[in-house]
Amino acid sequence: MKVLLYTEFENQIGKSGLGKAIKHQMRALEDNNVPYTTNKKDDYDIVHINFYGPKSYYMAKKARKNNKKVIYHAHSTEEDFRNSFKFSNQIAPLFKWWICKCYKLGHHIITPTPYSKKLLEGYGLKNISAISNGIDTNYFKKDSKLGEEFRKKYGFTKDDKVVMGIGLYLERKGILDFVELAKRLPEYKFIWFGYTDLKLVPKKIKEAVTTKLPNLIFAGYVEPSMIKGALSGADLYIFPTLEETEGIPIMEACACKQKAIIRDIPVFSGWLEDNKTVYKAKDIDDFEIKIKKILNNELPDLTEEAYKVAMSRDVKKVGKELIEIYEKVMKED
Q1: HSE (side-chain half, CA atoms, 13 Å) at 130
Q2: CA distances from 113 to 11, 245, 278 (A)
Q3: How far apart are CA 148 and CA 59, in angstroms?
Q4: Would 150 disulfide with which of 105, 119, 167, 229, CB 3.0-4.6 Å?
Q5: 287 CB contacts (<8 Å, ≥6 apart)?
Q6: Which class for 164: exposed (0-12), middle (13-18), buried (19 or more C-beta within 10 A)?
């Protein structure tokens, strides 16, 4: 059995969460000794498609015509397309129609969480399995040296309390609340990692990202080593996202034993428990209260329990689950 991992617009999406998910797939297959290729000209038994562009659609059509098996990875839903780029809400119904057209070409659909599986089933799609995008726990682990380098690079003293966020410049990612929290809490330092071309986002997001505050830094895109350094050297990670299909950054935070507050939204139910593995906030006021309590050491440290969550989603485990799906599909007529 040989797998073709096919990714359209690979260069453009490489820096996103989707790009990380694809790298995790490669690592998972390598760790489980499953032959794979990324060259569509190579021979293969199964094509695993990660995107919904026109080339991906025709790749799936061609594979089916040649009696090859198709796994379609549903990383996106109508719900997480909304509140992203300019006009995304207006074209969201069309987006839903198109991704369904793509996903239906899969002999089997994989999506990251039971939550996203439920959404897809609501679209009328079938043959869906929920498998985490996974995390490389060999790489993402607390690194005190990188943590010190992070604080030095961005001018944070040992006494500064640093709150960090990760994500594209999208409303859906909660970036507006992140900026508002920096305004409300001038006694703490806030830093956000990630980047989106400001030509693609609504005016209010552009205004938020260009906000000038003495305690707020937008660091842009950085290499994974700096993210690991920030997760090792910051005092708190917050994830104010409004919608996800999974959320790789919170898994990275758990793996690095970083204290975390996430928004209390359905996608995190069942695998991230409030007051046990992370703290959850219902709204911006709740975030503000819990940030203060954590940074003042008024709430118990949950990082050891959070670390167990990260270990349960290690890429090796994900690889075994992927192989089970591949083998199942190969046996089907």
Answers
A1: 15
A2: 25, 6, 18
A3: 46
A4: 229
A5: 177, 181, 238, 240, 261, 263, 281
A6: buried
Q: Per-residue pLDDT tens for 173-206?
A: 999 999 999 999 999 999 999 999 999 999 999 9
The span from the CA of 74 to the CA of 25, in Å, is 14
The burial class, CB within 10 Å (0-12 / 13-18 / 19+), for 37 is: middle
CA–CA distance, 293 with 278 (Å, rounded to integer): 13
Beta bridge partners of 130: 111
Q: What does the block give as tokens for 313?
A: 């989603």
Range list of β-strands (E), 19-143: 36-37, 46-49, 69-73, 108-111, 128-130
- Cα–Cα separations (whole angstroms), residue 5 to 18, 63, 88: 13, 13, 28
Other CB atoms within 10 A of residue 296 CB = 9
Contact predicate 215/52, CB 8 Å: no
What count of other Cβ atoms lies within 10 Å of the Cβ of residue 64? 15
The tokens for 249 are 């950054």
Model's pTM, two decimal places? 0.92
| Bridge partner residues of 1 (DSSP) | none
Residue 10's pLDDT is what? 67
d(CA 153, CA 226): 10
- Cα distance between residue 195 and residue 248, in whole Å: 16
Q: Pairing between strand 279-281 and 260-263?
A: parallel
Q: Are 274 and 253 spatial neighbours (Cβ–Cβ below 8 Å)? A: no
Helix (H, G, I), strand (E, B), or coil: what is residue 277? Answer: coil
pLDDT at 223: 92
Indicate the SS3 state at residue 152: helix
Beta strands in the chain (DSSP E): 3-6, 36-37, 46-49, 69-73, 108-111, 128-130, 162-166, 189-193, 216-220, 236-239, 260-263, 279-281
